[in-house]
Structures are given as structure tokens and as C-alpha cells.
Amino acid sequence: MDPFVISFLLGIVQVIASGLWSLSFEFSSYSSINWSSALIPVIVLGVLASFGGQTLQVIGQKYTDATSSEIILMTESLFGSLFSVTLGFEELSYNLLIGGTLD
Q1: What is the Rg, in whole angstroms, of the alpha carbon atoms belonging to the chain?
Q2: E strand or H helix that includes residue 69
Q3: What is the pTM of this model?
């Protein structure tokens, strides 16, 4: 199947699900958001980081066997946490360790 079709469908589901979640649980805090300074970073994060990264992942999976692909996806949270702690963005905590072992 075409990886761009899969990415587009995943993107649509994510937009709908996150929109419903936000309207259901975070609508009351919309008035405290500085929309003029927050809109561009949110769009960049959503389009480039999330959708772009997801599209590259789906394209890469097309050319990778299932076992290698699964090992890479399983270690995503491990390396994310490892780099976050190593680069100083997060402190190593019990919650991080417990979450890492549950994943």
C-alpha cells in the first residue's frame, strides 16, 4: 500500500481524536492561552514533527522487514527517555523508570 495514503489517514485520525480530546477536557483553559505566540509552534510541531516524522517512519517501514521494524519501534521510548535525560531536558526519576519498564 502507498505509505503516503497510510500517513494521511493516520493524520486525519490523529487530528479528529486530539480535537475531540481537547474540546472535551481542555476547553476551559483555552482563554488562558496566548494564541498569537502559541499558534505557529503548535502548527510546526503538529505538521513537521508529528506528521513528518510519522510519514518518514511509514516510508521506512515499507523497506524494512517486520522484525527489524518492530525492534526499532519498541526501543523508541527507551532512546527518547535516554536522550532526554542525557541532554539535560529531564531528570531521571522513579516515574520515568517505571514508565520505561512498563513500555
Answers
A1: 17
A2: helix 66-74
A3: 0.65
